[in-house]
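>> Question from a student workshop board

For tomorrow's exercise we were told to take the sequence and the ligand below, predict the bound structure, and bring the output to class. My setup keeps failing. Could a helper post the expected result so I can at least see what it should look like? The ligand is nicotinamide-adenine-dinucleotide.
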Amino acid sequence: MKKRILITGGAGFLGSHLCERLLNEGNEIICLDNLFTGRKENIAHLMGNPNFEFMRHDITEPVTVEVDQIYNLACPASPPHYQYNAIKTIKTSVMGAINVLGLARRVRARVFQASTSEIYGDPEVHPQPESYWGHVNTIGPRSCYDEGKRVAETLFFDYHRQNGVDIRVVRIFNTYGPRMLPDDGRVVSNFIVQALRGQDLTIYGDGSQTRSFCYVDDLISGFLKLMETENFTGPVNIGNPGEFTMLELAELVLQKVGGKSKITFRPLPADDPKQRQPDITLARQKLGWEPKIPLSEGLDHTIAYFSQLLNNPASQPRPMKMPVRGMALN
Ligand code: NAD
Ligand code: UDP
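>> Workshop helper replied:
Here is what the output should look like for this input. Compare the format with yours to find the bug.
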């Protein structure tokens, strides 16, 4: 049945893929975004569709729309972007959650929260199941994001218990694919863009830290399955359990792109988690979901996207002012 769906952060990397998928399924989409890290270009191909509407709005302010479902994705996700204005980041997570939950309660919409593996912090349990409570610094440069997302989860469950709001919470592990920003600062886009430009790939630390990378199409399928599943709120991990060191990732990108780039080593940012891998047992059991696209294949699609983008200067996003990395207080 056709639904009217609000997607906050809909002009961003993940949001634009979600808008596209839900629109293709015959729904009406309201894409809300303040265009901090999102781009109109990400949704330009959807603008002519009568079922698609763009609303320039900041989710720290209340919003009133009649909708059946809400996906709350508004929040910068890459460390340089969320550290650019740390106070704004935490306001976006906390006030954004309050605003979408208030709306969901008023219009009786099912509401989805894009939470994150960052709520596990620098984990002492590996891989991370949903039952793990995490190991998070409250006062470090990553805290505005990690703690903001943790409070957002708390708010979701309190609105659910106290007001009966119909919630779905997903914990997203590192995801990559077309429409990441080339100056995003995240590792996959950094390495690919550096390799395509013939620059050296910058590994922070010694490259032994691990991450598990999920291709965007797999992730969006997980979102839709969770939103369709009755009597299950989550939180549920969605990610690809394939675990790689940053050195392995750099070597794979170099092997695929070719060229003259080498690897250079830079200081490790404060509080950088040493390891991360989702335990997706719950997603398999409750949603019948698991990722299908291996890293090698997903990297091919992503390299093709960036190579086209870099060859067409007119389509390139304006570089964002890069922040000074936050100073560690511990
Ligand atoms: P992104 O930066 O591309 O998208 C975030 C979007 O939110 C952007 O379009 C931005 O303009 C918008 N936004 C930011 N602050 C806003 C505000 N105050 N009001 C309205 N819009 C605002 O990042 P993404 O990778 O697409 O991430 C989307 C969501 O998924 C985020 O909530 C992020 O925390 C979560 N997430 C992503 C990953 C990942 O690997 N991509 C991992 C974990 C969690
Ligand atoms: N990283 C790196 N080189 C880069 C960008 C990131 O070695 O150019 C490292 C970063 O220190 C971290 C990992 O890659 O250990 C993943 O970083 P990203 O910012 O993509 O995600 P997050 O740390 O939030 O998982």
